[in-house]
Write a structure and sequence with these properties.
alpha+beta, four-stranded antiparallel sheet, 22 helices, binds flavin-adenine dinucleotide, FAD-bd_FR_type, single chain, S-adenosyl-L-methionine, binds flavin mononucleotide, Rossmann fold
């Protein structure tokens, strides 16, 4: 069986794919994994085995970087291109985003348009509520679906061969061993099942059945547990289930515990003087160490949340620029005290400066096993735990499963088995996932668990940078970058009696706390790498209105938007703004603005009332009439000037008529006298016109 697994921005799809590949073995299948951008490793054009795609979505419904090319290429293909393809798809997304699972949906739509056949209903896993909610049952059902697909393929093949010579034979797929293809994860039946689909299917079914381990509580391996025996095994009676204690029915239930993820790393620590003590993350080329030049607490001391605005000084990094709407990554280390605690817990504190050597276990059963790329060579153990591994991450069920093997004592082993089992899903969600427990918190509760360092490297994800949105405009603050954040607070719970702050926001908070005390250079944030967001920009046309909705720290990019517009307007003001500027400087004493209408009917209706009513004037002549006293004063008493300029067809004539009317009304003269007065103004060159077209 083959499987192809997909696309990932921050690694969740990838780790799910790896999990499926590992589990495939348990079902008597061998999986081959590839990322969608590794098109040298797979060939969908010729694929005859089921394929599983696992795809996340990023940006505003866009494919992750490593799927862009694939999505582009399938969109170009024409009908029936993939009619040979048999697929299932798991889409990862987050319902907090408008385009939920859009990349998965796009790929699926294209595959269907191109004639591919789905062998299992698409799963849409929602990171907003926890991927596992959909993920776990989806994977559970996958194996049966693959078996079904295998059987179908086998019988199709039989039909083809029974059809004898002729057209159908020409269409018969290649008669190589029919294995199932999971998207970019290649899974092949482990056993030599011969060359027919039927026998492959049979093998897979048998393996699948044996994968369901019927585990009894570890303390009583061979007999079902009654309530009495549970009480006898548990040191004290608890009324409610907790991280370490379960209640019936779970405590008495048989468990479907997932297969043990195959260990694959061999890790040794060596005393060495030459260990490179790198401070900060290892990808120095793309990162810049920037000082915090300002810190401002935006919330009052008694607010529930603490919001801070930080200003970073980019002056020393001329290549670092940004636009409103962009975000940037902050790389922060794990907390010193937590790293130390972990070192003690692993019994490796004394070796913290030893160098870490990692290689692949020679006999590992993990398919496609690789030394994690995020662990650079020749680093110290301290560095590994400080800068490489997300030690705060919530241990996945597979990790919990692996911890079982390193736990003494029946009760604790049993509880860990429960937490990673199918039956214990609700307990895992309640006591581990929803509390955001990290490994150290789990280890503190399971005192008899002593995992080796290799297990941490195998299961803890890469320490991720945290992105923040620019809350300033380069035009307004050249060489500076502002961002705004709330300090994340994890409330205390039984496994975390003191509560804790978010990793990055807590670190930034500590750097500038008390606010306005700036860190020494050693603690400058390891920023950044800007993350351009070319779609999330204010409209470049300044006359286009826009609406911004950004509760809480969501307001951050809009501060940048508004600063940008303010600065652009200052640099390139429109005529009215410029004129308003003259009024404020005193160069212009009065500015009367009017806005004409586009709708001629409306114009007609409103023209009359414009002369008299309080409605805002429509045309310049209306304004002239409305201010006739002032106008005649300027022209006739103060010997002022009147300039008329423009390209409007009737404007000059209308203005002239309005001036006659103003003079007639103000001086109480007849039309002829009014015309004489206007003629005099022209003669004296105090009524001047520059009319176009
Ligand atoms: C493109 C982008 C732009 C962003 N811009 C901003 C920004 O401008 N300002 C900003 O403040 N953030 C922003 N974020 C979020 C930011 O990157 C971090 O995720 C956030 O600051 C938390 O980081 P942390 O390391 O402090 O928390 P972590 O230690 O990583 O913890 C946060 C995680 O814990 C969970 N969590 C939080 N509180 C609790 C709780 N009480 N109980 C249980 N679980 C909890 C959250 O779901 C989250 O998964 C942005 C994110 C993205 C992707
Ligand atoms: C910056 C960012 C943008 C995202 N955009 C979307 C989106 O538009 N639609 C969606 O359904 N999920 C979106 N997500 C959620 C991810 O698809 C989801 O968290 C997924 O599990 C990530 O998997 P990965 O680590 O393999 O990339 C986004 C996540 C991030 C961090």
């Amino acid at each position: 069986m083959h499987g192809k697994l997909g696309t990932s921005e921050k690694g969740q799809a990838e780790s799910i794919a790896e999990g499926i590949a590992d589990e495939a073995e348990e079902h008597g299948l061998v999986a081959e994994l590839s990322c969608l951008n590794q098109n040298e490793k797979y060939n969908l054009e010729k694929e005859k085995d089921p394929v599983v795609f696992i795809v996340s979505t990023t940006g505003d419904g866009e494919p992750p970087d490593n799927a862009l090319q694939f999505v582009k290429s399938i969109k170009k293909k024409t009908s029936d291109h993939y009619k040979h393809l048999c697929y299932a798809l798991l889409a990862l997304g987050d319902t907090n985003y408008a385009n939920f699972c859009n990349c998965g949906k796009t790929i699926e739509r294209s595959l269907q348009e191109l004639g591919a056949k789905q062998f299992y209903a698409t799963g849409y896993a929602d990171d907003g509520v926890g991927l596992e909610v959909v993920l776990d049952p989806w994977i559970e059902g996958l194996w049966k679906a693959i078996n079904g697909a295998l059987s179908k393929m086998a019988s199709d093949r039989t039909d083809y061969s029974n059809a004898g010579a002729g057209d159908s034979i020409k269409e018969t797929p290649d008669s190589s061993i029919p294995d199932v293809q999971l998207n970019l994860l290649r899974i092949t039946d482990q056993k030599d099942c011969g060359s027919t689909g039927a026998s492959v299917s049979k093998c897979a079914t048998a393996a699948s059945a044996s994968a369901v381990s019927d585990l009894r509580p570890a303390a009583f391996p061979s007999q079902p547990l009654g309530t009495a025996s549970v009480s006898a095994a548990v040191p004290h009676v608890t009324l409610a289930a907790s991280l370490t204690h379960s209640l019936p029915p779970l405590s008495e239930s048989s468990l479907n515990v997932p297969a043990l993820p195959p260990p694959y790393l061999d890790v040794t620590l060596k005393e060495a003087d030459t260990v490179q003590q790198i401070v900060g993350p290892s990808n120095k080329e793309t990162l810049h160490e920037v000082p915090i030049s300002r810190a401002l607490q935006l919330t009052r001391g008694d607010s529930v949340k603490t919001s801070l605005l930080l200003e970073l000084d980019l002056a020393a990094h001329p290549n670092l620029t940004y636009q409103p709407g962009d975000s940037f990554d902050v790389f922060c280390p794990n907390k010193d005290s937590e790293v130390e605690e972990m070192l003690h817990r692993l019994g490796l504190y004394e070796q913290r400066n030893h160098s870490v050597h990692i290689s692949l276990l020679k006999d590992t059963k993990k398919k496609g096993a690789q030394v994690p790329a995020h662990v650079p060579p020749n680093i110290s153990l301290l560095y590994l735990l400080t800068w490489c591994l997300e030690i705060r991450s919530v241990p996945k069920k597979a990790f919990v499963r692996a911890l079982v093997e390193h736990t003494e004592g029946g009760v604790q082993r049993r509880r860990l088995q429960e937490l990673c089992s199918k039956q214990g899903t609700a307990d895992y969600n309640l006591h581990v996932r929803d509390q955001s427990l990290c490994l150290m918190e789990v280890l503190s509760a399971f005192t008899s668990c002593s995992p080796p360092l290799s297990l941490l490297i195998e299961h803890l994800p890469k320490l991720q940078p945290r992105p923040y949105s620019a809350a300033s405009s380069w035009l307004r603050y050249p060489g500076r970058l502002h961002f705004v954040f709330n300090v994340v607070e994890f409330p205390a719970c039984i496994a975390r009696p003191a509560g804790r702050r978010g990793l990055c926001t807590g670190w930034l908070f500590d750097l500038v706390h008390p606010v306005a005390v700036f860190p020494e250079k050693a603690a400058w944030p390891q920023v950044m790498r800007t993350l351009p967001n070319s779609l999330f920009r204010p409209p470049s046309d300044q006359s286009v209105p826009f609406i911004m909705i950004g509760p809480g720290t969501g307001v951050a990019p809009f501060i940048g938007f508004l600063q940008q517009r303010e600065m652009e307007r200052k640099e390139n003001p429109d005529a009215i703004e410029e004129l308003e500027g003259f009024v404020s400087s005193g160069a212009l004493s009065h500015l009367k603005v009017c806005f004409s209408r586009d709708d001629p009917e409306e114009e007609e209706e409103e023209a009359e009332e414009a002369f008299t009513s309080a409605a805002s004037p429509r045309y310049v002549q209306h304004n002239l009439l409305r201010n006739r006293k002032h106008v005649t004063d300027i022209l006739l008493k103060q010997k002022g000037f009147l300039y008329v300029c423009g390209d409007a067809k009737n404007m000059a004539k209308d203005v002239n008529d309005a001036l006659l009317e103003a003079i007639r009304a103000e001086l109480q003269v007849d039309q002829l006298d009014a015309m004489k007065t206007v003629a005099l103004l022209r003669e004296e060159k105090r009524y001047l016109q520059d009319i176009w077209g």
